[in-house]
Amino acid sequence: MNLALIFSIFGFIFVAELPDKTALASLVLATRYKPLVVFTGAAAAFVVQSLVAISVGSLVSLLPQELVHRLAGLLFLIFAFFMWRRNQEDEEHRLGEEVNTTSFLKGSWAAFLVVFIAEWGDLTQLATATLEAKYRDPLSVFLGATLALWAVAALAIVIGNRANTFLNPRITQKIAAIIFALLGIVLLIGLI
User: Fold this and answer.
1) Which of 99, 78, 45 lies closest to 180, judged by CA?
2) 3-state class of 40 per DSSP?
3) How far apart are CA 117 and CA 25, in angstroms?
4) Which among 60, 39, 59, 40 is positioned nearest to 49, based on CA atoms?
């Protein structure tokens, strides 16, 4: 394990991930679910994606980008639809209760799916694969990349959760649904 390499990769991946769609997805999901729920799902997705990148190395870049973007776009549109239609009174009632295992798992699974699909073939996953191919130090590359992805997700989740306290939850819900829909459309038509 090479600490200098870990810190170097952390910085690189952190900066690359900040403007990314997965950071935006984490932010938006945090307006719907509790922060720990979103972080658990997102963190698990990032671990899997980093393991894929490390395992496959530079071969990740051979994945059909168009198909990955279309699937991610479709998923974002589906989440936008359900986010737009959810009943705010039921949600407020549920937030007042203790979070049960089912809602925790449901929210974590939703966060996992959104982040996993959005990250597939993404710049930071390709960068992680390329860095592994270059340095041949899987543990250092994995730790640096995964910790950076977690840090960006945590930052986005805190911002998304705070947005819910400043804005009317119904407005936040509608804004989140619109952002998901726009991101889905952009992915489907191939602009990103």
Assistant:
1) 78
2) helix
3) 11
4) 60
Tell me which of 40-49, 97-106, 110-119, 152-161 is least confident: 97-106
pLDDT averaged over the chain?
77
Nearest CA among 5, 11, 21, 12 for reference residue 153: 21
Q: Which of 117, 118, 111 is nearest to 38 (CA)?
A: 111
Buried b (16+ CB within 10 A) or exposed e, 135-152: eebeebbbbbbbbbbbeb
Counting every residue written for the chain, the total comes to 192
d(CA 29, CA 115): 10
Residue 30 near residue 38, CB atoms below 8 Å:
yes
Write out pLDDT tens, residues 56-110.
Answer: 764 544 556 676 667 667 766 776 777 677 654 444 444 444 445 558 888 899 8
